[in-house]
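Troubleshooting: if your tokenizer reports a length mismatch, compare your output against this known-good record of 410 residues.
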Amino acid sequence: MPDRAPQPVDRQLPTDEARDLISLVRDIAQREIAPKAAEEEDAGHFPREVLTLLSESGLLGLPYDSEYGGGDQPYEVYLQVLEELAAARLTVGLGVSVHTLACHALANYGTKEQQAEHLPDMLGGGLLGAYCLSEPSSGSDAASLRTKAVRDGGTFRSGGTSRPEAGGEAESGGDWVITGTKAWITHGGVADFYTVLARTGGEGARGITAFLVPGDAEGLSAAAPEKKMGMKGSPTAQVHFDGVRIPDGRRIGDEGQGFAIALSALDSGRLGIAACAIGVAQAALDEAVAYATGRQQFGRPIADFQGLRFMLADMATQIEAGRALYLAAARLRDAGRPFAKQAAMAKLHCTDTAMKVTTDAVQVLGGYGYTADFPAERFMREAKVLQIVEGTNQIQRMVIARHLAGPESR
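Known-good structure output:
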């Protein structure tokens, strides 16, 4: 069966610098990522060395300020980099997306002093981040999280107002002690820093605050990684905080502002997931086209048969539509305009597209598609998780509907 090399995606990029950046990413993907992807995923190998290379190449802080080691790139460009990485190996593309998500709080809500102290290492110093919002009992209902952060000395804060447990007024500064468990944490156990959302006040969204916790903090530990149907090279684990003490200087934003910070991060993070989904779908389409044009049946390539030609055409159309949708949302974000609805739409459509396209790719390959000798089955297994992470697609539909029809009646 002859090989048919996939044609690079014809991208609309805003600058020559962006075109050079995409060329660099493609070179790294072809040399360092794609050739080892199947073997390392099967072995459950986490490619920390690749993420270190990406950091050294300036690719772990692309949408952030160059003053602190970022790349000053618009989201329109950053997301296309993610797509290229995810097409080579989803573990890498999703890893960069999660790292970017973990940097969001400090980069957008931290003080200048905090940013100067921590961001250079986070964006270009080889560090890797994780984002800690979900818990064993609070996934989609993130505002009900139970992990607590209490000021040393028994002070408990609620909605930005100090309420000491035993009289007197709380003082600023000092330490926080974090106790609780986070679940489904990408990079859990291997991250160098964790952006953690913890309860510092009363129930609900207004009692949550964001913190930057170092990965080697005393009392922080991770459970064994989850055994997943796909993305085996990407560690997903519970992270335990057993009286983890951190200074107030690692609190990000105001007390009680954490949930708003989390939602802001997720709006951008959903675009990252959308781009990764289109990368996986594109890789599956490339595999299906290569197989269909090379496989002979009844004396001619199976790509000659109308049933398969129409499948390939539909797959390509869905991918192009998804790419256009996430880029339209990214351009709104880059222009400083509201984009939450469009981010939810992009995450919903692109991840559903990835599931459909990868399933069709398995069908195009027939029996071979169901074997691990070809990557189609891996793409299909990996696509499934993208419909779940950073807000299930049912949650995305709720978000979209709220923008259209207002909040649900209670």
